[in-house]
Design goal:
CATH architecture of the largest domain in chain A: Orthogonal Bundle
Radius of gyration of chain A: 31 Å
Order of helices and strands of chain C: EEEHEEEHHHHEHEHEEHHH
Largest sheet of chain C: 6 strands, mixed
Low-confidence stretches of chain C: 241-263
Low-confidence stretches of chain A: 1-113, 222-226
Largest sheet of chain A: 2 strands, antiparallel
Strand order of the largest sheet of chain A: 1-2
Strand content of chain C: 15-25%
Radius of gyration of chain C: 19 Å
Shape of chain A: elongated
Order of helices and strands of chain A: HHHHHHHHHHHHHHHHHHHHEEH
Shape of chain C: globular
Chains: A mainly alpha (about 475), B mainly alpha (about 300), C alpha/beta (about 260)
CATH class of the largest domain in chain A: Mainly Alpha
Number of helices of chain C: 10
Mean pLDDT of chain A: 72
Oligomer: heterotrimer
Distance between the termini of chain A: 86 Å
Largest interface: A-B, 76 and 72 residues
């Protein structure tokens, strides 16, 4: 087998092509054609997903070596990516750690679950963790603030990394969450100068913070060059490589633990402060009067959103987090009227979008996070079209029906107004209705016919007269509208 | 990174590549600055963000359909996708109870996700022609060619011309749409026109600044310009000038110093202009306010 | 019923938002040369009525005519003063510029306002007493001054019919008196003025015609004939508080009643 592998250098980065063993053979086959003068990094990103099952099993059997090889591959990619002509997508964490040997992954001896299932599990947990705060973002009109937060946490991550030099540090998560809160404070300060409106303030603050972070990363990466695109996208396909293995026992992917922890924290806070959140969302003034501080709720929410954004950074990146936070709750908002149900429905839709997104990404071998976002959008699109009460379809059906009923009521009111007035002879003539009400003659005919059938009026040779029933309908309509 | 001014100037006028880059960036700064002024005044700052993100799938689809990286084709693809995004945002807001911020966030993130799926998918194709599409994420001014600048001018100049032609009506629409309607001005048509012009400004910048940060070039010059003047005409001119200044400075720094993505550097340049404007602009500036407050307190 | 042609004739006008009627089957005649107030409780559809006449909202049925023809054909005869808070007063433009906008309709496409428009605008500003503010940025104006600028913009349109939406809202007493004076001057010059108003107390003093509106037209005509307690009761329903059950025959003079009604 080893003999079949190409030995020439990578045409992009000039490095010799790497390891020769049975496993990397499988990887090479999956990523590109052997013998092709293309660096492995130019290939797909979700290479895990593209492995055929036998290769995948072999990869798993080789255990720690497989993981280390994958890391090597990642590092190789990092070397290549700055070439403007091709790009690999790297999770930030790997990218920042590129200079150090990947000690955590090297220690792993055993990979218990198969990666695609782990990937899906991480995807589902991430999606659910995003949708829960997302519900409140949608209801409180803070969707764009969340966009700003998710971008700005990058600066927190990068700055904290420069201080502690360890991507695994919890300090990193806290610093990033703090930077999210700081962003919101900055936006509000800028808005409060009254020189800039809120939407413009959002559009000013986060691009700046994000740009600083991107440039810091680019400069930090020095000549090995980190792919700046990575910070936007994240890559779920790599998540299973980072194991959570305290004292050598593998407990699953780190990302799963991180997102799971954030999800549990969100759930606990949600359960504890459900009442306050609900009140502050629907009636901030009342909440204030009752002694709950809406400001605390506001910043608590901002904090949770920041925390979730940090957690989801490696896996889905900063832009697509917004899709998971907004799309499922927006869809749920069209499907239900109760807050508790909206939370449950969004979580379900988010999980659904995550699973389908993963599958689509596996099939196309495309960005998993991107596919999840696109699926979340599709879920929203479906809800928009077909939601039983608020969907476009239901709306159209109802509008046609209401238009009929409304026209009938309008006709009744019109006749009532002109009953026993000097103009009645003119106003109440069927043939003059179209001219007076400015309706199409065909529409008038339809409305009159229907009203006649329902006993609202009688057509006495071109002059329309209300029946008692019709008079009651007109009175009811008017009183109902006046009440 | 730190070149002498003379070196920069010499490079600017002597170096063909740099001249192209500077010309392109200036063009993009003028167009996005001028049209951004209207977007900011109409409280549509974030619509620019949504449309620029939404443009990504358009770029990749245009590449898939035409099979070439002809700049005009990619720009048209981007423009159509951006307009579709704006259209969907309007439709969602009009037909549902979802507020505009959620609709914008939705369009922004979902279109971008779709764009990434397409982008990563295209990068798997054996054909090497797709290489470089990813520069549309963060922009790379150094890759601007003459044909790119020609395409930018072909879209940008007509946009500015239309802005000048319909100046009076667009001004009225932005200030008081109700009154404009009562005068018989076709408000909906002009609304579509203005949104389309904004899309043009965005797609012009995609290759240089990238979809992620393009919105900053719409919002920031306008906010900075607003601080210095109380006249719409002056504001639009200043905004275009600030945009051009930031564009050229950012593009030059990124293409001469290090292989850095241009988008973030341009954003930092224009943000610096904004900060200076917010602080120092006469009358509106914060420092002016502090000085006045101090004077009153002292008196 | 006037035998001569009314300035504004509304017939069977119904307006609905999302199939919920805001105005029901409105019939209304505004005779030429009157100063008419339109009053009614909140949500009565006063603003909607004006917006419907001007074609700013879609109507479900009926129509409005200006001097016997649809509004679209008579735009030049009409001037509109929207609510003051409908625009962004931080917009970068000057007082003179805003007033000149009144000439945009007459200017047509592609033509820029020139010296003639400038002089007309300055004259209009003079009439509302804002001459020396011409170069001011509009954000530096008080509420009353903003309203005068809007009024000047309508004056410069040189129309026959004026529609004004709550011109006295948030305006100081001096400006209110000045505006009323101007409106009465317009009427004396043969113009027709329709004003959405919410203070019942001043109706008899300011207007000669009044329309009581609450989704339907409750009553419309000369103030002396129409502005009665029973009509007001019918318009305001339970929203009006009569003090001590005191009966006020004919025209209303009770200040407190006006206050109570406007809440």
């Amino acid at each position: 087998m080893p003999a079949a592998l190409p030995q020439h250098d990578c045409s992009w980065c000039g490095l010799p092509r790497r390891p020769v063993n049975d496993w990397s053979d499988a990887v090479t086959r999956a990523i590109g054609q052997p013998g092709e003068s293309q660096c492995p990094s130019a290939g797909g990103t979700a290479f895990f997903a593209t492995l055929r099952p036998p290769s995948r099993r072999r990869m798993m059997d080789s255990g720690g070596r497989a993981a280390r090889q994958a890391t090597l591959l990642v590092r190789h990619r990092v070397r290549c990516v700055n070439d403007a002509s091709h790009t690999g997508f790297l999770p930030l964490r790997q990218a920042l750690q590129q200079r150090k040997p990947c000690h955590r992954t090297a220690r792993v001896n055993h990979v218990p679950m198969t990666p695609p299932i782990e990937i899906m599990l991480i995807a589902v947990v991430t999606a659910v963790a995003c949708t829960l705060p997302g519900v409140f973002l949608v209801l409180r009109g803070m969707a764009l603030i969340s966009d700003a937060i998710t971008h700005a946490v990058l600066l927190g991550i990068v700055l904290a990394f420069f201080v502690v030099q360890d991507t695994g540090s919890p300090f990193l998560v806290l610093a990033a969450a703090a930077s999210g809160v700081l962003t919101v404070v900055l936006i509000e300060l800028l808005h409060r100068t009254r020189l800039v409106r809120e939407d413009a303030a959002i559009g000013l603050v986060f691009p700046l913070l994000f740009s600083i972070a991107v440039i810091l990363i680019a400069r930090r990466a020095g000549d090995t060059h980190l792919d700046v695109d990575a910070v936007l996208l994240g890559e779920l396909a790599f998540a299973p490589f980072d194991r959570f293995a305290p004292s050598g026992v593998d407990l699953g992917p780190q990302a799963l633990w991180l997102m799971g922890g954030i999800l549990v924290l969100t759930l606990v806070l949600l359960a504890l402060f459900y009442k306050e959140l609900k009140l502050a969302t629907f009636d901030a003034a009342l909440a204030l009067a009752l002694g709950f501080a809406p400001g605390v709720v506001h910043y608590g929410l901002v904090g949770i959103v920041s925390l979730t954004a940090v957690g989801a950074f490696d896996t889905v990146g900063s832009v697509l987090v917004v899709a998971l936070m907004i799309a499922p709750p927006a869809a749920a908002y069209l499907l239900t009227d109760r807050l508790s149900r909206m939370l449950a429905v969004s979580a379900g839709l988010g999980a659904f979008a995550a699973v389908i997104g993963c599958l689509v990404a596996f099939i196309l071998d495309a960005s998993i996070a991107g596919a999840m976002a696109a699926m979340a959008g599709l879920v929203f699109g479906l809800a928009w079209l077909f939601a039983p009460e608020r969907g476009l379809l239901a709306l159209a059906v109802r509008r046609v029906r209401q238009r009929q009923e409304f026209a009938q009521a309008m006709l009744a009111v019109h006749l009532l107004h002109h009953e026993a007035t000097p103009q009645a002879a003119v106003e109440c003539q069927a043939s003059h209705l179209s001219e007076h009400l400015r309706w199409e003659p065909a529409f008038v005919a339809r409305v009159v016919r229907r009203a006649e059938q329902q006993g609202v009026l009688i057509n006495r040779g071109n002059t329309l007269a209300l029946t008692d029933h019709g008079r009651r309908l007109a009175m009811k309509t008017l009183n109902g509208e006046l009440a | 990174m730190l070149m002498d001014l003379s070196d920069v100037l010499q490079a600017l006028f002597g170096d063909y590549t740099l001249r192209t880059v500077a010309l392109g960036s200036a063009l993009l700064g003028i167009v996005s600055g001028a049209l951004g002024a209207f977007a900011v005044l109409r409280r549509q700052s974030m619509l620019g963000d949504a449309m620029s993100h939404a443009a990504l799938p358009g770029v990749v689809l245009a590449f898939i359909v035409t099979g070439s990286k002809d700049p005009l084709a990619l720009m048209i693809g981007a423009a159509l996708a951006g307009l579709l995004g704006a259209l969907l945002v309007t439709a969602v807001v009009r037909t549902t109870r979802i507020k505009s911020d959620s609709a914008l966030g939705l369009a922004l993130a979902v279109f971008f996700g779709l764009g990434l799926v397409l982008l990563t998918y295209v990068q798997k194709l054996p054909d090497a022609a797709q290489a470089g599409l990813d520069r549309y994420l963060f922009g790379q001014a150094a890759t601007l060619l003459e044909r790119d600048v020609v395409a930018m001018a072909a879209l940008g100049m007509p946009a500015l011309l239309l802005l000048a032609l319909f100046w009076k009506e667009l001004k009225l629409l932005t200030f008081d749409p109700g009154f404009a309607t009562s005068l018989g001005v076709p408000v909906h048509l002009l609304d579509v026109l203005l949104t389309s012009l904004l899309v043009v400004a965005i797609v012009i910048g995609l290759q240089t600044v990238g979809v992620v940060l393009m919105s900053a070039l719409i919002v920031a010059p306008a906010v900075a310009a607003r601080q210095w003047t109380d006249r719409l005409g002056v504001m639009v001119l200043l905004s275009g000038a600030f945009g051009a200044l930031a564009g050229v400075a950012g593009a030059l720094i990124s293409s001469t110093a290090a292989r850095l993505p241009t988008g973030p550097i341009i954003v930092i340049c224009i943000s610096a202009i904004v900060i200076v404007s917010l602080l120092l602009a006469p009358r509106r500036g914060l420092v002016w306010g502090w000085l006045n407050a101090g004077g009153v307190a002292a008196a | 019923m006037n035998t001569i042609q009314p300035a504004v004739q509304v017939t069977d006008l119904t307006v609905a938002y999302r199939e919920k009627p805001v105005l029901w089957d409105i019939d209304l005649n505004v005779p030429a040369g009157v100063l008419m107030g339109v009053v009614g409780p909140n949500g009565a559809g006063k603003t909607t009525l004006i917006r419907a006449i001007l074609g700013l909202v879609r109507v479900s049925a009926g129509q409005a005519l200006i001097y016997g023809r649809p509004y679209a054909e008579q735009r030049r005869l009409v001037a509109y003063v929207p609510q003051r808070n409908s625009v962004d007063w931080d917009f970068p433009t000057s007082v003179l510029d805003v007033v000149m906008m009144g000439r945009y309709g007459a200017l047509g496409w592609f033509r820029r306002p020139g010296r003639r428009e400038r002089e007309q605008a300055l004259m209009a500003l003079e009439r509302v007493g804002m001459h020396e503010f011409a170069r001011r940025q509009i954000s530096q104006l008080s509420g009353g001054q903003q309203q005068r600028v809007f009024l000047a913009r309508a004056l410069v349109q040189d129309a026959h019919v004026y529609f004004m939406d709550e011109p006295f809202q948030g305006v100081d007493a001096t400006t209110e008196r000045a505006i009323v004076g101007l409106l009465q001057e317009l009427r004396s010059a043969g113009k027709t003025v329709v004003v959405v108003h919410h203070d019942l107390q001043t109706v008899p003093e300011y207007f000669d015609y009044v329309t009581l509106l609450n989704v339907r037209v409750v009553a419309s005509g000369p103030v002396a004939e129409v502005f009665t307690e029973s009509a007001l009761r019918a318009t305001y329903g339970g929203q009006i508080a009569f003090l001590n059950g005191r009966e006020i025959p004919g025209r209303l003079q009770d200040a407190q009643m006006g206050m109570a009604a406007s809440t």
